[in-house]
Design goal:
The structure holds 2 protein chains of 2 kinds. Chain A has no helices and 11 strands. By secondary structure, chain A is an all-beta fold. By secondary structure, chain B is mainly beta. In chain B, the strands form 2 sheets. In chain B, strands 2, 4, 5, 9, 10 and 11 form a 6-stranded mixed beta sheet that branches. A 5-stranded antiparallel beta sheet of chain B has the order 1-3-8-7-6, with no helix packed on it. Classes of the chains: A mainly beta, B mainly beta.
Chain lengths: 112, 113
Amino acid sequence: DGGITQSPKYLFRKEGQNVTLSCEQNLNHDAMYWYRQDPGQGLRLIYYSQIVNDFQKGDIAEGYSVSREKKESFPLTVTSAQKNPTAFYLCASRIHGKDTQYFGPGTRLTVL
Amino acid sequence: DQQVKQNSPSLSVQEGRISILNCDYTNSMFDYFLWYKKYPAEGPTFLISISSIKDKNEDGRFTVFLNKSAKHLSLHIVPSQPGDSAVYFCAASYQTGANNLFFGTGTRLTVIP
């Protein structure tokens, strides 16, 4: 069964701690993305990667970091520098040249 | 600055009737548009898309209409079914395959049995 998996589904962290959200895809997609969704708002792009070992900042990259060591994996680290990290985080992937991004089930992060 | 807007946060429709979800955009450089459907606690699922060279695209019960002069697109669902109850997002990009999709804030559709 091909798809995108994100873990964990729910995540709690204390203020001041870094936390890493996992995103794995077995669709053999080239590009991967991280979005953030807040209540009443659309999805906003945090980071994206078109190929292994390369990634670009999106609209709201401050306080986040990513890596792309493998084609299948694109983990997102929410650092203590992110002022308002509580949100629903969505990972997506896409084949180069195609338009559709496919989304994972999301991780809800709550900072206590 | 929200470049893609969905001004109706919610919509209720009787089963079997037509659902019309609207989306407006401000950036005339957008030339590709998509609709996604999202259930609670799940990721968005792609529904249908349209290129700016077309004014209509149809896929089964779903039709998207694009009015470039008005910078407006709409999604029609006919007939509406209870399983269509979800949040619908429209998204836009500058070109097909572009990395950045600009999303609207979503419209929650409730189809009443």
